[in-house]
């Protein structure tokens, strides 16, 4: 798989260097993959917090260095535990800065335990007061083996709790006691749609297109179950059931009425859109269990490179723990959100009142209304007849939905006419059509037609002479150009409209025959639409396609010419 790196061997060092370059509060320790706060003198008389592990989990762990969280981080190569020498060097720097105690916060992986543990023993022999807390929050395995529960995203919450305590001046014993208790009331479970791959290596496992895996680790280790891809609501319910199942030795106990902090963590490759959907589902499912979500944190907290997946972390909290979670921190990866509970029942802002306008023509009947209805019906029939043609033309330069978009407009107009006769007054008719297309048509076309009709309706207000229609079309085109940015010759619907408008200028000539002028306008629009096949697109989605590939007329221009023909 492709990676944006300079070299496979240097990617961890390059990532740390980039992080420090962009953050004035961080410093690298010379000769080691260690990042430290730049205010080490402020440590004198306080407990320092050191964490770390393999790279590839960014923003963990260096993103959590800052006042109110970690003092420093020791990083290894991608998915590789850091060296004993680097851990020991970091401990020595913190001890020499005057820290009264140093707490190592370590995820429960054998390599991390061994290397941090060895460094701890060496540091103690040098006289440093060092303790270690091992975090194992994985809820995946119903019967964890000798290795115990893996340390995953819940570790970030332990960073936060420990950091807030240290910032408040707590001693090492108190911090160890409180974070140990907090970690026992916490659980995490992952769900993935894809594997991840270490730079220079192939993916760690394979998942079929229709499969997802429950309970996998943050290095691509196997989970507990593969299953068919489920809708988010069902997937989240499956996760929560597994996490809280009393028969699962790794479960977290949740009782109705208890308060939790929820972390919805992107494992690296999930879109933010999907993450938001998962977060909403998690809130609803927890609420249905009678659980109060005191805080919800949503984002990328501990990733597994580019794995398309998510993990849910739950920590049962009391008032004191919640205060520690809410305490201020300068760590860049901790979310800066308003403190408050999550709920799916948040009160909505009331919709604005409609701005009162002039009442519509009360009659809606008579020859004017009947003629308008006949013309609109012809327009609708025409658009529906050319739906497939417009889609085909649009596939060459767009997403192939121009016909569908115009068909939506036709169906909306028909439904509107069935509900009430169209206004007979031209200005009111165009204004109503503008509102209708803006609401129902969709796409850029809906907005462009809406702009055109709104401006044309304003120009027609209080007028019905033939010249007024020429002015209205000009006004509509001016407004479309102002906001749409296109001009005649750019291969858009404006090419047909502007050609028709030029012909309609004859309506300003006294004694002109409106029917003959309209016929000329339709012919001009059709010729202009056909001519767009020879133009290079200057605006719209087609402008991103090489002109040599555009061998057909612009679908928007064709649609406009067809609408004008139906009016005739």
TrEMBL record:
Keywords: ATP-binding, Cobalt, FAD, Flavoprotein, Kinase, Lyase, Magnesium, Manganese, Metal-binding, Multifunctional enzyme, Nucleotide-binding, Phosphoprotein, Transferase. Its cofactor is Co(2+); Mn(2+); Mg(2+). GO terms for biological process: glycerol catabolic process. One of its GO terms (molecular function) is metal ion binding. The active site is at 219 (tele-hemiaminal-histidine intermediate). Catalyzes both the phosphorylation of dihydroxyacetone and of glyceraldehyde, and the splitting of ribonucleoside diphosphate-X compounds among which FAD is the best substrate. Represses IFIH1-mediated cellular antiviral response. This is Triokinase/FMN cyclase. It comes from Oxyruncus cristatus (sharpbill).
